[in-house]
Specification:
The complex is a heterodimer of chains A (88) and B (211).
Chain A lengths: L1 H13 L8 H8 L1 H15 L5 H16 L2 H18 L1
Helix pairs in contact in A: 4-5
Chain B lengths: L1 H17 L4 H11 L2 H12 L4 H11 L1 H14 L4 H10 L2 H13 L4 H28 L9 H10 L6 H16 L7 H24 L1
Classes of the chains: A mainly alpha (88), B mainly alpha (211).
Chain lengths: 88, 211
């Protein structure tokens, strides 16, 4: 993990001067974070046992969309999880 | 900025321990890897018994964005000595990259700036992860802090959805990962990443043509 992460970070910094970054690669890389991060959290909500994770996740998505604050999103999601657990 | 780093560091520490990684291993991972999203995801995968090779593959996909930063910082740092470029590579992080680009727009020679921001973020991050590991090890399982992991990913990914192409990439990736859930060995994440990237690039082309 450490090695591949470092290799990705250092990749273009270590290339000798004079080599251009391919435009297609740059365009593709732009969508990597949103695609991968979504692929990580989506199954955690959809395939969780019971409905409380999914419901709490929807609350967290709404909070993240509205306020864009990491800590607030996580606190709201955890609070919603316990609330839905108690309700359902 | 450091508030965000510290908050996410604490959450990463808590989430790693909550998904079942021993505290010392979690701290070592933080020092070596220094990339929060991939650490939390790997902790979850390792705890669910995913083979190491698949954990590494997932790490590659999550941390591909650093390659993008690396490509973009290259024009500022390509003439620095090798040992500096190696150190800069290790220090690349989302917010350090963002700050350095802003600074480089108005000031020449962002080397000292990058180094200062990088070291500060690194130190704050490591202390925060250590604090999170201690908190995570001391909190009962009934608090369900392991759910902080997917929440942290929601908190990171949703604010990225600023244009239609980005939304398309995220939605297609989400649908693909759910449809491909039957694939062995968590290959669904790699499949979803590729489908999402393709969707984003297609949507980008389509919006440009119509606009």
């Amino acid at each position: 993990m450490a090695l591949v992460t470092f290799a990705l970070r250092a990749s273009f910094l270590l290339l000798p001067p004079g080599i251009e970054t391919p435009a297609l690669l740059r365009r593709a890389l732009r969508y990597v974070p949103a695609a991968v991060l979504t692929a990580i959290w989506a199954p955690e909500l959809v395939f969780a046992p019971g409905m409380e994770q999914l419901a709490a996740g929807v609350v967290a998505i709404a909070v993240a969309w509205r306020w864009r604050l990491t800590f607030v999103t996580i606190l709201a999601g955890l609070a919603a999880l316990h609330l839905f657990h108690w309700l359902l | 900025m450091l508030v965000g780093v510290v908050a996410f560091g604490i959450i990463a520490g808590v989430a790693m321990v909550a998904s079942g990684i021993p505290p010392l291993a979690a701290m070592l991972m933080s020092l070596l890897v220094f990339a929060g999203a991939s650490m939390v995801a790997s902790a979850q995968l390792l705890a669910s018994g995913t083979p190491a090779l698949l954990v590494i593959l997932t790490t590659v996909f999550i941390n591909l964005r650093f390659m993008m930063y690396s490509a973009s910082l290259r024009m500022h740092f390509q003439h620095e000595p090798l040992r500096w470029r190696l150190l800069f590579g290790y220090l690349i992080a989302d917010n350090v990259y963002g700050l350095t680009l802003m600074r480089a727009a108005t000031h020449p020679a962002p080397r000292e700036f990058f180094l200062g921001a990088g070291v500060m973020v690194w130190a704050a991050w490591q202390l925060a992860v250590a604090a999170g590991i201690l908190i995570g090890a001391g909190v009962p399982a009934s608090w369900r802090l392991e759910f902080a992991a997917p929440l942290a990913f929601i908190a990171m990914s949703i604010p990225m959805l600023r244009d239609r192409a980005m939304v398309a990439a995220a939605i297609v990736a989400g649908l693909t990962v759910i449809a491909a859930n039957g694939l062995p060995l968590k290959l669904s994440i790699a499949a979803a990443a590729l489908a999402g990237i393709a969707a984003g690039m297609l949507a980008e082309r389509f919006t440009r043509r119509s606009g």
